[in-house]
Amino acid sequence: MAVVTLSGVGKSFGNDEVLHQLNAEIQDGEFVAILGESGCGKSTLLRLIAGLEEISQGDVLIDGEVVNTFTPKERNVAMVFQSYALYPHMTVEQNIRFPLKLAGVSEQEQKERTYKAADMLNLTNYLPRKPRDLSGGQRQRVAMGRALVRDPQVFLFDEPLSNLDAKLRVQMRADIRRLQKELGKTAIYVTHDQIEAMTMADRVILMNKGRIEQFGPPLELYDQPASEFVASFVGSPAINLIKGRVEQSGENRFHSDDLSIPLDIKGIPRQTVTVGVRPEHIQIGCNDESKGFSGVILSIECTGDRTFLEVKVGQGSLRVTTGERANFKIEQDITLCFPNEKTHFFDINGYRLPKSN
């Protein structure tokens, strides 16, 4: 069992506070992705959990035990790095065995664990080879094998797929997730890639400037973003965000410059807000004409399964995604509408406003 708890965790370098009072609990056997842009503190947080950095405040607990003063070895965690960190003069087998050799494990057990890990990672035929004779994906699997043979409580991954091409990343995503499920081990996975986080994780910690912006299942971040930051970070193409004001004069309407959009929504008072609607949620055409508004198509991109439109609306434009292969044309007039249940509202500070239908 390995429950990892962050209790008021903070980190400072001199007077520069880079992590601010982080609180989270990662359950036994859970796969949690720490997602965020460069410089948000995600790798620093992983290093605090691993014991590679000292905590400035708060506690890291593993199975209820504070491990702040424990060495990485004493925490029984294993880390897989972006750079693989393989020894070039050693064979694949020697690289995988190395941590067992350092730990004084018997020769027979070293062999058994190494061969078992190699079999799980499809590396058996590569055991005699040197790292220079391997592809990037194979090298990353060797790095995983070296972590695997240690039989740690927790696996820590620091952007392990960043050096791989797109096709290999897809395969390695599946391999890592399959292996984690087979082993039932707790895994914490740092990435800047939302696709990795959304497709691999049970839950996602989205970080912003050293703080946890939202922690929850991937689709919760997508469907119920806690803030403008979450809404804009998760999802591609990016969500449409329009600043304006809600007015209530007989009917709810949202006004932004010369744009006026009818909204069948209760519970949002008259105030300055930002409306957020994802491109795939904007409806082309409207059963109720009173709910629609007009736009003009500026650009069209068809990828086969989807069509991406940029539509001029008022003084700005909206991104619209549809699965239809309709015969759209540049400068074509179209009617759009925002579905009530898919429209998000954020206050002037960028936080989600509750609404009632």
From TrEMBL:
Domain ABC transporter stretches: 4-234
GO cellular component: ATP-binding cassette (ABC) transporter complex, substrate-binding subunit-containing
GO biological process, one term: carbohydrate transport
Hydrolase recorded as keyword: yes
InterPro entries: AAA+_ATPase, ABC_transporter-like_ATP-bd, ABC_transporter-like_CS, ABC_transpr_MalK-like, ABC_transpr_MalK/UgpC-like, Mo/tungstate-bd_C_term_dom, NA-bd_OB-fold, P-loop_NTPase
Top EC class for this record: hydrolase
E.C. number: 3.6.3.20
GO MF entry, a single one: ATP binding
The keyword Hydrolase is annotated on this UniProt entry: yes
Keywords, comma-separated and alphabetical: ATP-binding, Cell membrane, Hydrolase, Membrane, Nucleotide-binding, Transport
Pfam families in alphabetical order: ABC_tran, TOBE_2
UniProt-recorded name of the protein: Sn-glycerol-3-phosphate import ATP-binding protein ugpC
Highest classification ranks of the organism: Bacteria, Pseudomonadati, Pseudomonadota, Gammaproteobacteria, Vibrionales
